[in-house]
Description:
Blueprint: H1 2-32, H2 40-67, H3 71-92
Helix pairs in contact: 1-2, 1-3, 2-3
Amino acid sequence: MRLANILTGLAGLLWFGLFLLGWDLIKGVVARGVLGYPNAGQIEFYVVWPALVVMALTTSAWVCNGTRRWPRLLLASTGVSLAALLPFMFFYTGGV
């Protein structure tokens, strides 16, 4: 269970960092006052999705540690979040 918690914490920190980065990007666009930006899709992609992943990881860690069972479920949710990181970053940075 300890390895699962460490990996989940690291994955959560990565996604939380993306959330903070996205929040700062959105605030910067708002401060410039560009008409039509940020749009709802940008806010959802840069802020909402990373926040949802962090909340999902936190919830799965809370449930798995609270019952003291299912370390494989915690590892699976962490693995899915880390596997989703590469395609997310591909679109986050604008592709190749």
